[in-house]
Amino acid sequence: MTLHPLQVLTVPTAPYPDQRPGTSGLRKKVYVFQSRRNYLHNFIQSIFSSIDLRDRQGSTVVVGGDGRFFNTTAIEVIVQMAAANGVGRLIIGHHGIMSTPAISCVIRKYKAIGGIILTASHNPGGPEGDFGIKFNTANGGPAKEAVTNKIFQISRTIEEFAICPGLHVDLTTLGKQTFDLENKFKPFTVEIVDSVESYANLLRNIFDFAALKEFLSGENHIKIRLDSMHGVLGPYVKRIVCEELGCPVNSAINCVPMEDFGGQHPDPNLTYAADLVDSMRDGQYDFGAAFDGDGDRNMILGKHGFFVSPPDSVAVIADNIFCIPYFQHTGVRGFARSMPTSSALDRVAKATKIELYETPTGWKFFGNLMDAGRLSLCGEESFGTGGDHIREKDGLWAVLAWLSILATRRKSVEDILKDHWLKYGRNYFTRYDYENVDIDAACEMMEDLEIMISDKSFVKQRFAVEDKIYQVEKADNFEYTDPVDSTITRNQGLRIIFSDGSRIIYRLSGTGSDGATVRIYIDSYEKEQIFEDTQVMLAPLATIALKISQLHHRTGRSGPSVIT
């Protein structure tokens, strides 16, 4: 407890026009937060001001981040401003570090009014990298658009912020710290918590840890390799998978969170997790996985680096969902995928007579369905998979789901996938990312493309590549009417759907910090040719996608930055 009440100040400020949160919060280069006066303070105040004073007064808020550069600096400001804005208690991860899934878990466990997550997810870190701030609401999930719009509107007119500059918290010591503030009836409390334990306890109630321990460390155990990419998930993997489930310590690599992620790009895909892929090629490991910076994304690999695409991953989990004890108890209420994700999950939903929802990109749309009791399992093509145990995608949950399936089925990853394709057919899927494109060029291209595909004459057009002919059956800009609250979300991606069910989708991503990222998604279903190379099978559609958009000409790019 402080000896003298700490002073609360009201500081004048001026607004910035560019603090509109994207799909996953506000993301900018670190230097933007460092060099622009009160840039961080303005956005934090806008978050607090978006919450009704009566709800804010004496409330609990959770704070944590992925450990990237600027994390601790931002936490100190958030603590000082939370106290000045009437928040009663902050729950902060040890050393200021907590994975995004764990924050969702803790928000729900402690009935907090929300959480502030400091992450730029899979984007690079360090002084030259990215930093991000995301606000999650009381359900543990990302704030809905009405909330983020309110935050943005406040940020455009902000004139002052409240702060308690003399308040300093020790992030290294577990336990409670209390502070007296002037003109405050009750002390302000900060609780530094074990970042792993609440989340680990949640997983214990979902999976059969005894069966997993036997599978991972028993007499005929498999060999696995998990790459945390120097992100937040390292301590979780070591504690849960190595210490509790008995995996050898060397099963987990890059487990020390680093401010710059070891100079790497913490994005679990074939490009940025190439070291893991290479280490799997010789066949010494049966299962591999990589996680991103804040621990919500995952990539699954089988022996010899056999790659499981994210749409196939969620489809396989859906088809084997009762290998997970949690779903044996709760039943299955529904499946969902984001619109760009391939329709592999749809085929499982149809066969099992379970409702399937197609939503825009963004986990908040899944959260709304979960809160209404309509959804149990969902996934996005951007390496995100999760269940209704929290309201975020969850990398380690997805890995334990896969290990539960392997432990039950006693087959390899590759054999399980091939069995799945034989049963349902195969959706070949790929995504081309064009990163850091000039934003004006990207927007103009998308506008012209929408005009073209919206013309009535575009439907029924035929495109021939080699011996293949594709005829347009439908073309639109995807919009979504939420079945729970009837809210309409428009402009979610340009879709071209062909008569054989193949799809080409164009989107501008909302998760970058610099320039624009143009994404092209290609999805094509095959019932017979199910064991071919993905890029070879999708080459004709890729040619059509580039021809229609003239992307290389319009952006000055000769090829994609990343192919997944």
UniProtKB/TrEMBL annotation:
State the protein's name.
Answer: Phosphoglucomutase 1
Record PROSITE patterns: PGM_PMM (PS00710)
The UniProt family comment states: Belongs to the phosphohexose mutase family.
Question: GO CC terms on record?
Answer: cytosol
Principal subcellular localisation of the protein: cytoplasm
Domain Alpha-D-phosphohexomutase alpha/beta/alpha residues, every copy: 19-160, 199-303, 323-424
> Where does this protein come from, organism-wise?
Sparus aurata
Picking any one GO biological process from the record gives: carbohydrate metabolic process
A Gene Ontology molecular function term of the record: phosphoglucomutase activity
